[in-house]
Design goal:
This protein is an alpha+beta fold. The chain is built from eight helices and ten strands. Helix content is about 35%, strand content about 25%. Helix 3 runs antiparallel to helix 4.
Length: about 220
């Protein structure tokens, strides 16, 4: 079996392929290249009214890259609603390494100093490859998604890859595109520059891989 390395993962994503495990306790990782790819067009993101009220209420504090490992472990954890996941130990290790290199990021929802939801993914060029999300409280992961969309827009990203389209993501505007069309979008987005830390451009204070950016509310546009 080929050893997973950060460079290998980045090359795979750039070719339109991504890794998954069959189960959370599986030792193996498989490469996935679906016939149809899920994307969420940033300019077509739909924000439900009730969720918009939750975002404006400030019920959750949104943090970026504050606890990446905690976020990916939250996504990997089995729950009563999710009996198993595709995130195993090798994937947790490799994405944690990518995070330290500044390529993998988490957007987190916190309440009373407790991580209660969030998502993580990989950024290359102007593409953000969304991996997974979790929620321990109502709307926590959705608030993180809203914050992610705003961050990607402000940072100059042009493509949000969701891998697959679920009923949950479809509510926000996610669509499926054929592999050939996806590869065209991917190729164009990889040539463009974007910054996950748009604050770098404004403040020059954030260090990729070790960011502690926080925000109590998210702009709704």
């Amino acid at each position: 079996m080929i050893e997973l390395t950060p460079d290998l993962i980045l090359k795979a994503y750039a070719c339109g392929v991504f890794p998954m495990a069959e189960r959370h306790d599986s030792p193996d990782v498989y490469w996935i290249d679906p016939d149809f790819r899920g994307i969420l067009p940033l300019d077509q993101f739909h924000l439900p009214r009730r969720l918009a009220r939750t975002v404006r209420s400030g019920a959750y504090e949104v943090r970026v890259d504050h606890d990446f490992v905690g976020t990916i472990r939250g996504c990997a954890k089995r729950t009563t609603k999710r009996r198993d996941t595709w995130i195993n130990s090798p994937l947790i290790r490799i994405f944690s390494e990518l995070h330290l290199r500044g390529h993998a990021h988490s957007v987190e929802a916190w309440r009373k100093e407790k991580l209660v939801g969030g998502l993580y993914g990989v950024a290359i060029g102007s593409v953000f490859f969304g991996e997974s999300m979790f929620s321990l409280e109502r709307d926590a992961s959705k608030v993180a998604l809203v914050a992610l969309i705003e961050r990607l827009k402000r940072g100059g990203f042009t493509l949000l890859d969701t891998q697959f389209v679920t009923a949950h993501l479809r509510r926000f505007g996610a669509i499926e595109v054929p592999r050939a069309d996806y590869l065209i979008l991917l190729s164009a987005a990889l040539t463009r520059r974007a910054s996950f830390y748009f604050e770098e451009l404004e403040l020059g204070t954030v260090v990729p891989g070790g960011g502690k950016v926080t925000q109590s509310t998210t702009q709704i546009s």
